[in-house]
User: Fold these one by one.
Assistant:
Number 1:
Amino acid sequence: MEHEDPRTRILDAAEELFYGQGIQAVGMDAVRTASGMTMRRLYQHFPSKNDLVEAYLLRRDGRWRNSLAAHVSGVGGPPRDQLLAVFDWLGLWFAEPGFRGCAFVNSFGELGATTPVVAAVARHHKEEFSGFLAGLTEAAGAPPATAAHLTLLAEGAITTAAVHGDPTAAADAKEAARLLLDTALAS
Amino acid sequence: MEHEDPRTRILDAAEELFYGQGIQAVGMDAVRTASGMTMRRLYQHFPSKNDLVEAYLLRRDGRWRNSLAAHVSGVGGPPRDQLLAVFDWLGLWFAEPGFRGCAFVNSFGELGATTPVVAAVARHHKEEFSGFLAGLTEAAGAPPATAAHLTLLAEGAITTAAVHGDPTAAADAKEAARLLLDTALAS
DNA sequence: CGCGAGCGAGAACGATCGTTCTCACTTCAG
DNA sequence: CTGAAGTGAGAACGATCGTTCTCGCTCGCG
């Protein structure tokens, strides 16, 4: 596995460190050690820490949303069930070892005020996520307001699971989502 | 106003800087300048930056929850209305200039993994908040699960409002809360 | 073989951080 | 008056950060 392409090795190491400890708490030297790189090669692939941070966030955004979409389309069934499956997927995520909340919320809180690209990636990530839920909600025949409600539940579950270290927030959010969805579909 | 007690002046300056820019992005020298203190006096009141960070979070926690409780009890009415008033208060908060999300979520993401006291204060803040909602929910005659649902909505609204810079998340959350609450009370 | 280009390993650099120290000056008890 | 104690203002210190440079060494091409 250590023969993977260098960019991937660097990003793997950076992601684990940045996500697990916060971005500012991790120095480039720690990334170098964890990736088994030399400084020269590290800076050849990412000319500055900002570039590495941006690449970390962009890659994680893509992988996160792809994983969610794969899980949801994998369960199949009507759009209503797929929407609820989003919260099952969140529950799996929360239970992963090292789960520490949303990387984009964390990086936004830490660097959003001083590093515009971090704020932009975080905003983009959240817009894509709520857009994904909006698509499923529309397919289920529920009004757009319901999509906003489900987005809030999901975001709240992520935050709550992170701070409390307790994955049950996903089940709570799923139950609330089911109530809201069935109420919306009954009208 | 510059004759206030030094502790308050320091905490006021620290809060504005820490909340607005992130904790690690603010040096002690910036706190010293903003508070109009000398280094010696700054360290006399807070022997280390960690102490200042902890005091900042604790003071903000108390003020935040007192303000919420005052607003909610000020509107009066039945518990159901007070519960919904929580989301009005959130909307007012979101619209304040410089709003940048929950200080505790932000500090948790930035320092929670490396500074246990930060994680503990964030967890305490969230527990107190959900406990507050649980009390109102019980008074309204709704089951405990509803309190968890409303907590998730509020947390999600805070995150969404912060990342999007859009206070309308409070109104969305309030509508969802009303639906969930009325569903729970109808049974 | 000879040599220039690229590499790994890590030292070095300048900036910045949290924290402490210096020093001239004021204050006030005796 | 005298001197001990405390102050303001900011320099200084040691650590750490992001980034770059040095220095042997290797390797491929003439």
Number 2:
Amino acid sequence: MGKLVTEMLKGTLEGIVLAILSARPAYGYEITARLRDQGFTDIAEGTIYALLVRVEQRGLVDVKKVPSEKGPPRKVYSLNDQGREYLEEFWRTWSFLAERLEQLREGSK
Amino acid sequence: MGKLVTEMLKGTLEGIVLAILSARPAYGYEITARLRDQGFTDIAEGTIYALLVRVEQRGLVDVKKVPSEKGPPRKVYSLNDQGREYLEEFWRTWSFLAERLEQLREGSK
DNA sequence: TCCTCTATTCGGTGTTGCTAGGTACTGGTA
DNA sequence: TACCAGTACCTAGCAACACCGAATAGAGGA
């Protein structure tokens, strides 16, 4: 997909990850893999880890270290109440933007 | 709306402006005003002008200077063929992203 | 003269995703 | 034993983009 999707992900990737966490807790490596499965083939691992650090510092998620059978311990993130609130706000903003764009697309047909 | 929409606009604002230009040619001040009417109250004027310079340098738009009755001459931008192609690519990318997000939203309900 | 509206430009800032590495632990294979 | 692949996390430096604040400049009205 390339550069276009990269720019569009700015601001939405955070919501995407929080939405994934709202379904059930997960750790960075797992989230990256799941995103790749869903078609986001270009998303860099480092991006997810940096993003997780950010949302943790903002207090949107809770973290627990869990030992892994194969590899270093996992940092399992789960959405907390503040994160859930933030996610709702994200969806509201997303809806606003999606509506405007849908209008624009219709208008230019 | 605040910070959230600002971040989301990265990568989409360009498409929004190009979509506006695809309907008919327009100049910066006019585009800004139209966006404000459509609910994008926070978009800074400077942002639009910088964006227009960018898309011009990439050859997506053509420019014509037109005198104004009230104020400095207007720089009227119109979408050219390359811009139209780019806009289609933008819509494809947007659709991809919107679908994933819609899925995620459904899944977390 | 001064202010408002029109219209464009520019320098500096913060956020964000990417690149391109590195660390570390486990298990399998040559 | 030595090496490599898979798992799992982290970091420094970079580029793109939207914002803020200010400046410039022309036209018309108080």
Number 3:
Amino acid sequence: MSQPSSAVDRLLVDESGRRPRADARRNLERLVEAARIAVAEVGVGVSAHAIADRAGVGVGTFYRRIPSLQVLLETVLDEILDEIANVADRALEDPDPWHGLCVFAAAYVRLRAESCGVSEALGGACGDALAQRLTELRGRIRRLVERAQAAGAMRTDIIWQDVPFLLAAAATGEHTLGMQASDKQWERNLHIILDGLRPTPPSTLPGAAPA
Amino acid sequence: MSQPSSAVDRLLVDESGRRPRADARRNLERLVEAARIAVAEVGVGVSAHAIADRAGVGVGTFYRRIPSLQVLLETVLDEILDEIANVADRALEDPDPWHGLCVFAAAYVRLRAESCGVSEALGGACGDALAQRLTELRGRIRRLVERAQAAGAMRTDIIWQDVPFLLAAAATGEHTLGMQASDKQWERNLHIILDGLRPTPPSTLPGAAPA
DNA sequence: CGACAACCGGACAAGTTCTGTCCGGTTAAG
DNA sequence: CTTAACCGGACAGAACTTGTCCGGTTGTCG
């Protein structure tokens, strides 16, 4: 938010090594921050004009430093995916496997619930650009789940591939049947889902395992 | 699918009481069926041209009998919402309240998972057009949940408003982290969620109740 | 303080995609 | 066979989109 924002720096190191003017940097920071908010509220389909408007600058200013809309969106999303990966790494070091899984799950679902664009990106809406990140994250979730199962803290009739789908599920649904979800509906959803993951399986799971 | 389709009839009873030509009726049936499939695959954002193409007719034919794209979409969705309401009514007559809830939940989640457009409509994407239906459905779900709780078959720290969100959640997520969900992933999700709804609450639920 | 390069904003071009209309050619039905 | 109903798709026009360009402004440095 208020730190230098590596995204801004990444976008700033172009052309001759001259230091950019102060207003140029300020506007770029505004644009990146506006992009973050817009992506969260509107999703990856947000337009360049919409971001420029939010930042309080013209589109000309947008395209002066930003090569293309797509580059900006990928930069912003890549940063968030990095953050998620870090949370997963820390969770893997938790001495209590189940607690580690819960901590990661809460962070993951929160990020998805609070940013429409992050959900879309994790769902694969950004094509190959973020595919590498997604693969890495998948591996970390797999390890988190299998570690919890090995410790006897989780049902073993559930396979690790179910977990990403369940976490994605917990984060969705801002509106249903005309009801507006509270800010924390995702916490309630996640809580119930995690309860459903605990041992003592009440019955066998139907359907084939996902590919 | 192959029955006369009340939607077709509803669209056909216009202008002078003359019986329409056979080809006219055939094309309208094709259009309605194409709309159903297109709404399921693409969602309520599908275009009139896309539906006409799927039906194998021109757009002129589309607009000859159909007043507007919106009318067609609402007609198709209204029919499905009717079906859901009927399932709920039957579930309310089940002598076992928990079994009734499970049967309804499975049908509801299946319909949502199999039709992108139904999910959007239940999420409120169609504005006021379907608001009445949504309200009715809400009441039925409330009764199903409270009946199950009164019978002691379901945790009482969950409120009925949680259930529509949980069911919506179970149905979402065709892709996550680069993985393609199996046809029946929704069954696995729902199964785990229903397990989480059973009595013996492991802990208290965080967050405020939704409005 | 003055000069000037860097910067700014938004009108604009060019493209896409949408809904809905219109009309010349075709076909079902009495 | 006649004729009204029907068909298809070109078309109009509106509402978006991304990205460019240029006249006016401003930060920065000698």
Number 4:
Amino acid sequence: METPHPKDLHRTYSIRQLSKEFDVTARALRFYEDKGLIHPERKGQTRIYSPRDRARLQLILRGKRLGFSLVEIHEILDLYTPKDHGVAQMRATLVKYRNQIETLKRQREDIDAAIKDMQDGCVWLETQIDELEAAQ
Amino acid sequence: METPHPKDLHRTYSIRQLSKEFDVTARALRFYEDKGLIHPERKGQTRIYSPRDRARLQLILRGKRLGFSLVEIHEILDLYTPKDHGVAQMRATLVKYRNQIETLKRQREDIDAAIKDMQDGCVWLETQIDELEAAQ
DNA sequence: CTTTACGTTGACGTTAATGTCAACATTTGC
DNA sequence: GCAAATGTTGACATTAACGTCAACGTAAAG
């Protein structure tokens, strides 16, 4: 009834609320749950989403925008969920983190290249337009 | 028989050469052609790829790495192919360029956020590991 | 001349990520 | 109390992006 933001750590969300807020269908949310990406609680049959679920959903959607598959997103989400099983495990996790960072950095290089291409194109187009207008 | 690089603007490539160089299957290359993303010439039945085709393939693969669909990549490729049909068209194209830049910049924000998350996670893990080792 | 390598076009199969629809339960406003 | 809104679980349909396979052509190599 108040703000749709996680002002309160004990807020809950219905499936409709979340699907509206992030513009995904309820079907998709259930699908993500099916794939083990979110784990909302149940009040009877009905799904109850916590701010934590909401946060995970944000990560899922970010992953999607970046072109990761749901499987990949699942792995990424695993990196976000803390599990401290001794130094060995933590070292292993650290490696995964660093690999993920490398992946993302490579992706950023692609983006930067694409942006540069487009910006060059803009400059070229602008000068062309200017010339044509001057010649007019 | 020489370098696989476009040293010469009149070089040509077989479908196998390209598929090997970029580690995609020939099936995929034919598929992209089917979808209108590349237009290699034909020597009889056989496809002959030019450096220009190769360049387009690079763009296609970059688009894929960035999570764009083939349809979106098609539109992006259109932006790359010069067509000067008067100032009006050029203005329209300019708008598309700028929109694409905005899209890419938004994507870069996602990436930067993800990288930051992972780096923070690294720092946290490192300190944890240090503590556990010191306590040992 | 026949094998070997590479090319071609269908046609059908597959996987991911949903959409769609039916059939049903539950809660809520009037 | 009853209709409307919202929720649920299947089950099947769909789209994208290829993979796989069959059946065939061609060209160089031994």
